[in-house]
Amino acid sequence: MDDLDKIDRALLAALQTDGRMPNAKLAETVGLSETPCARRLKRLENDGFIERYRAVLSRRALGLGVFAFVYVRFAVHDKTLANRFEREVQAIPRILSCHNVAGTADYVMQVVARDLDDYGTFMRDQVRTLPGVTSIESALSLREVKSPGALPLL
């Protein structure tokens, strides 16, 4: 982060707002000409500050009305079992994120489903059968107050 100057931070902030911004507009936004802007952008990509570009889709428009936080616990803490669990989780698209955490759970996942019936079936047939899982607790989101947004450029 110390390698970023004011212009780099402005570039990153602008791209977090609109990842499809054309280079000419991006250059204008940060006060550069197009060539130096493109060079800086390429450096930020190469240095790993920008991991990838993607579209943010609407869960509701896609018919995914249920959003849940799922707390997964293991009875046995075995590295091989945890590795298998993590590999299998990677392959399940409706698990949006999965974090290995400290606290009362071993993992916290964000999961989407069409409705409660779909969610129940998914939990029974897929999540409960994952390697190592002995206990699951769900917290259903009633409404999103703040969505994942731009990272702070401290």
UniProtKB/TrEMBL annotation:
PANTHER family: LEUCINE-RESPONSIVE REGULATORY PROTEIN, TRANSCRIPTIONAL REGULATORY PROTEIN. This is Lrp/AsnC family transcriptional regulator. Keywords: DNA-binding, Transcription, Transcription regulation. Residues 4-65 form the HTH asnC-type domain. The keyword NADP does not apply. It comes from Paraburkholderia edwinii. Pfam families: AsnC_trans_reg, HTH_AsnC-type. Gene3D superfamilies: 3.30.70.920, Winged helix-like DNA-binding domain superfamily/Winged helix DNA-binding domain (1.10.10.10). InterPro entries: ArsR-like_HTH, AsnC-type_HTH_dom, Dimeric_a/b-barrel, Tscrpt_reg_AsnC-like, Tscrpt_reg_AsnC/Lrp_C, WH-like_DNA-bd_sf, WH_DNA-bd_sf.
